[in-house]
């Protein structure tokens, strides 16, 4: 049986760990060849590449710091050149700087907005030169853009809320070209950045309707749906995979 993404090429930013790793491997399971970017941890990125190749897919990783505009654009073009095409783009790379408003430095603001807002914009800008009819752009947001459940998240929430406007506007602009653009808002997900046994885990768990952390594969399943046949008529949507955090 032909896999749903057979013959497609996907680029996942921040694909060496956590949600990004789960997304890259799920897309590979569904038949896509996968390119991924990473900032640190070349060994982790190489492991994801090896896992994707073990699934019978081509895979490739490139270092690109989201705060480096040139590196971000170059990574997209290099991925398209490496595989000869580009069909699915997942803007997953992001950072979080949390803390009281008074303690946030201008340097914190600059880096968070560079990585979480400017980089996805630049990835989209570079990718549309390669995406054709049926192309998919999937941005990874956050439940904190949907609900301010606790203090200290103003900068991170600001950056992820910006993706709502970007997603809707690009869906409208790129729709006539047959390219869909959607946004996935993960809730508390058990990753290195936000472990289910971390200091704030009990609070975050209590804020969900299901009373538990999610797993990276649960976010990846929704991304895969949007990237596959099931996502053909979905665009401009923001889908929460948050266990009811925003309910």
Order of helices and strands: EHEHEHEHEHEHHE
CATH C-level category:
Alpha Beta
Q: Structural class, from helix and strand content?
A: alpha/beta
- Let me know the average pLDDT: 97
Which residues sit in consecutive blocks of at least 5 with pLDDT less than 50? none
- What is the name of the CATH superfamily? NAD(P)-binding Rossmann-like Domain
Instruction: Kindly identify the CATH topology.
Output: Rossmann fold
Total count of helical runs of at least 4 residues: 7
Could you give the order of strands across the largest sheet? 3-2-1-4-5-6-7
Biggest sheet architecture:
7 strands, parallel
What is the level-2 CATH architecture name? 3-Layer(aba) Sandwich
- Quickly count the domains: 1
The whole-angstrom Rg is 17 Å
Strand content: 5-15%
- Name the helicity range: 40-55%
Distance N terminus to C terminus? 39 Å
Q: What does the overall shape look like?
A: globular
Protein name: SDR family oxidoreductase
Pfam families: adh_short_C2
Family: Belongs to the short-chain dehydrogenases/reductases (SDR) family.
């Amino acid at each position: 049986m032909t896999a749903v993404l057979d013959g497609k090429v996907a680029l996942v930013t921040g694909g060496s760990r956590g949600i990004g790793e789960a997304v890259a491997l799920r897309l590979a399971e569904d038949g896509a060849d996968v390119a991924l970017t990473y900032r640190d941890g070349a060994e982790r990125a190489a492991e994801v590449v090896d896992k994707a190749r073990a699934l019978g897919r081509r895979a490739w990783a490139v270092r690109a710091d989201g705060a480096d505009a040139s590196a971000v654009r170059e990574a997209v073009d290099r991925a398209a050149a490496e595989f000869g095409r580009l069909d699915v783009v997942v803007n997953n790379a992001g950072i979080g700087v949390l803390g009281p408003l008074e303690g946030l430095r201008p340097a914190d603001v600059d880096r968070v907005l560079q990585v979480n807002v400017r980089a996805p914009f630049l990835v989209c800008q570079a990718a549309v030169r390669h995406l054709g009819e049926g192309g998919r752009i999937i941005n990874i947001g956050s439940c904190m853009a949907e609900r301010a459940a606790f203090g200290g998240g103003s900068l991170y929430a600001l950056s992820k809320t910006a993706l709502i406007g970007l997603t809707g506007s690009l869906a409208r602009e790129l729709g006539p070209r047959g390219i869909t653009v959607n946004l996935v808002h993960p809730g508390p997900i058990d990753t290195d950045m936000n472990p289910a046994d971390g200091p704030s885990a009990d609070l975050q768990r209590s804020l969900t309707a299901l009373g538990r952390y999610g797993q990276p594969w649960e976010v990846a399943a929704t991304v895969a749906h949007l990237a596959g046949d099931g996502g053909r008529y979905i665009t401009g949507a923001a889908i929460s995979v948050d266990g009811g955090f925003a309910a």
